[in-house]
Design brief:
- This protein has a single domain, classed as Jelly Rolls (Sandwich).
- With 245 residues, it is of the alpha+beta class.
- The chain is globular and about 55 Å long.
- The protein has a six-stranded antiparallel sheet. Strands 6-5-8 form a three-stranded antiparallel sheet, with no helix packed on it.
- The mean pLDDT is 90.
Length: 245
């Protein structure tokens, strides 16, 4: 029996993202959360050690407890239900992104970007454009409003699809839009919630003005034939999404 409904798929096509609540088991959540905290210098039991520590990634994405949240489980099955059974690489990692709180910070609208474009600090080589098919952002602890949540611009996948029909893929410095993409959506929720998002969705981490650490595990699924089709800009943007076309 499919995990996603027709309404889920239509929502994803229209908005470029889909939030699924309670996608992980408690055992998966606990194992991943323990692994992340074990990798941090901050004290899990001392909230004062978290304050104003900025934004950080943890190099443990290949650990079984981390990648097990997005591969070989319902999250991966749902991704395949959109892209197509057997179309995605079945193994990979899920990078932990830790957004530490600053309760003195005044919340403001963040600026989104597309992944895979060079900036001086993101490790993407100049002249190279990275590519993937579908991403999943998984929470392993509660994330409240204005608490550093993963933030996206609904519908921007369609705007970018049209843009790249008329512009080269490497024509976007830093992956930042030179035009207004409309209002953003901050993904908030509980441990085990997941947000799927199209590879051409503008996104970012929102400011964490709360007191809790926002921990998100982010994976970027790739079609097995992505290198063969990555430069295509078909009129039907869902041409390579068997579950949605």
């Amino acid at each position: 029996m499919p995990l996603l409904t027709d309404a889920d798929k239509e929502f994803f096509k229209e908005n470029g993202y889909l939030v699924v609540r309670g996608a992980l088991t408690q055992n998966q959540i606990d194992a991943a959360l323990d692994k992340v905290w074990d990798s941090l210098e901050e004290d899990r039991n001392d909230p004062e050690s978290w304050i104003k520590k900025g934004y950080r990634t943890a190099p443990i994405g290949g650990d079984d407890a981390i990648k097990g949240t997005v591969y070989g489980n319902d999250v991966f099955t749902m991704a395949e239900e959109m892209v197509g059974e057997g179309k995605l690489h079945p193994d990979g990692g899920a990078g932990p992104h830790i957004n530490f709180p600053d309760p003195d910070r005044e919340w403001s609208q963040p600026m989104g970007h597309l992944d895979g474009y060079h900036t001086p600090s993101n490790g993407v080589p100049k002249g190279v454009v990275g590519a993937f098919t579908l991403a999943a952002t998984v929470y392993i602890d509660k994330v409240e409003k204005q608490g550093g949540g993963f933030t996206i611009w609904p519908g921007s996948h369609k705007i970018w699809a049209e843009y790249f029909r008329h512009h080269d893929l490497d024509s976007l410095p830093g992956g930042v839009a030179p035009f207004d993409l409309g209002p953003s959506y901050e993904f908030t929720g509980e441990a085990g919630d997941v947000c799927f998002w199209h590879h051409q969705m503008s996104h970012t981490a929102g400011p964490n003005c709360g007191r809790n650490v926002r921990i998100a595990l982010i994976t970027r699924y790739r079609r097995k034939d992505l290198d063969d089709i990555r430069f295509e800009t078909p009129e039907d943007m869902w041409k390579y999404w068997d579950g949605l076309s």
